[in-house]
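User: My collaborator sent over this chain with a note saying "see what the structure looks like." That's all I know about it. Can you take a look?
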Amino acid sequence: MATLVRPREGRMIGGVCAALARRFSTSAFTMRAIFLVSCLLPGPQFLLYLALWLLLPTDRTAPKTAW
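Assistant: Without extra context I'll predict from the sequence alone. Here is the result:
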């Protein structure tokens, strides 16, 4: 299993769903769909997303692209 870091590529907003998808070996689309469906249920989904966005480190292995 991959470590839980936010990737530099494949992000939409913060990269949390992409990080979780990489960790659990699913597609980012599937993880985003699961997150959107979970938002229909009561609970702190948005707070959890924000906390993961702040706490998960960014992937440092990918090279930065220079413009």
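A starting point for your reply to your collaborator: The chain has three helices and no strands.
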